[in-house]
Amino acid sequence: MEKEINKVLIIDDDEDVLFAAKMLLKKHVKEVLIEKDPRKIPFLLNQGSYDVILLDMNFSQDTTSGKEGMYWLEQIKERDPKAVVILITAFGDVETAVNALKKGATDFVLKPWQNEKLVATIHAAAQLKNSYNQVSRLEQEKQQLEESIDAPFKSIIGESKALQNVFTIIDKVAATDANVLILGENGTGKELIARALHKKSTRKDHSFVSVDMGALTDSLFESELFGHKKGAFTDAKIDRAGRFEIADKGTIFLDEIGNLSAPLQAKLLNVLQSRTVTRLGSNEAIPFDTRLICATNEDINARVNDGDFRQDLLYRINTVEIHLPSLRERIEDIPLLADHFLGIYAKKYKKGDMKISQNALRLLQKYQWPGNIRELQHAIERSLIMADHSTLEADDFFFLSKGGNPNSQQATVIDDSFNLEDVERQTIQKAIQIHGGNISKAAEELGLTRASLYRRLSKYDLQ
């Protein structure tokens, strides 16, 4: 018969009790740990979690009052409020045991115990622990699902051939568990594509967990992705599951993975290879079953060639690559996107029925959109807020025009050239001009790393 209980910890200073309990329970429990010295309880709790803890009420320092047992019960519950503790007590200590129940113990058994009753009590306690775990996970999944529902502009808008090619790949890949790497500039909608893959997958009824890797500091990386135990660091006041645990049976989306430092790349690779995570402050490896989708705006292959990104990690994350087109590669979609955002913001700002003129659309289709869809979205919002009429005209997008303020930090409309290299060269030149030659600020404006911008400067002989 398969053992349903994973791990039980028994703490009693009587070796005969420990031996008898272990021999009885090993038929029903996958792992039974025994310990004579209650002072090792904090260490044992840091080593992992337990389905059930059996705790003696009296130890050698205090053999009758039960105060030692009460003290260690409080210590256990302080470190793990959801710990399931069964007290082992003599008949005369029943009143003390009842008081212990009020302080968080789950149940108690009397010495000498009846084997069948002890096993039944532990099974019931293990089911309670399992329900605690399920509630905790559901609460975190609920939070992730609410964040997903609240994510703005969930629909993917567009009919261009470039976007249709992306849809074709999604249809082929979504139902598999293949790892996917989405490549594209900032603002092209990489997260929307990742969500589309999840919604069309067999994991759609479970969590989609999005992580902005670029926003994670080295110190937060392990805590956020792998979780932590209470007390693992100063602000770790409760046990917390990491993003991989929360995404179990679902999908995890690691955005801007190209920003990871070499040490963090190594840690992530180890987790992906072992398919387990270990929470900070614990030695227990927790398995996960998660579909991995990553994204970056970097030239990731160039990063590998430069030695900035591990090739073995790239092999692990890009079973399938999806190249997301920039907005200037799908200008026929601009009217659809503009109308979509116009409807959203007209409703948000109570502007009534708003339209956009053909002249304005032609202007928008000539603009190079270095910020892609995100920049178009902000341009529509800004123009609608400032407009005094129900139809947006080209003049309402003055901040995109050649006559705009040269210090406005907005790229200009380029000449009627759609050669991508010309577009990129002019965009880079303009960004550097706007920021007075400051490479760091220009790179940030363009959504690039300094290294990536330097490579492009060399490519276009702009240094």
DSSP strand count: 16
Query: What helical percentage do the residues reach?
Result: 40-55%
Strand order of the largest sheet: 2-1-3-4-5
Count of separate DSSP helical elements: 18
Termini separation comes to 72 Å
Major sheet, described briefly? 5 strands, parallel
Mean pLDDT: 84
Give a written overview of the molecule.
It is a single chain. The model is unreliable at 149-154 and 402-416 (pLDDT under 50). This protein is of the alpha/beta class. α13 (334-348) packs across α15, α16 crosses α17 (439-446) and α17 crosses α18. The strands form five sheets. The protein has a five-stranded parallel beta sheet, sandwiched between helices. Helices cover 45% and strands 15% of the residues.
